[in-house]
Amino acid sequence: MSKLETLMREEGYTDVMEFLEKECMGFGMRVGVPAICTNEGCEYCCDMEPDQDRGWCRDCQTNTVKSALILAGVI
């Protein structure tokens, strides 16, 4: 399973387009967009800036969190 698929599952989605439209494009009440650590074996999720590709993972203590928009290749 890809990191994008893991992130979608965490947010309750199975369709990429629906996930991106509802969770990443409107932002709604969110401060940012869904993001996930890209280290193997880590599934730390949080909200980050839409263009984040080196966010801080609180579990791994590394700059390996990427936004859903980066993972999907939108940005």
SSE map:
Layout: H1 3-11, H2 16-25, E1 33-37, E2 45-48, E3 55-57, E4 62-67, H3 68-71
Antiparallel strand pairs: 1-2, 1-4, 3-4
Please state the structural category. Answer: alpha+beta
**Looking across the biggest beta sheet, what order are the strands in?**
2-1-4-3
Rounded to the nearest angstrom, the distance between the terminal CA atoms is: 21 Å
User: Uncertain spans, ≥5 residues at pLDDT below 50?
Assistant: none
Coarse morphology: globular
Q: Please trace the helix and strand order, writing H or E for each element.
A: HHEEEEH
Q: What is the average per-residue confidence, as pLDDT, rounded to a whole number?
A: 90
Radius of gyration: 11 Å
Strand portion: 15-25%
Number of domains: 1
The biggest beta sheet reads:
4 strands, antiparallel
β-strand number = 4
Number of helices: 3
Helix content: 25-40%
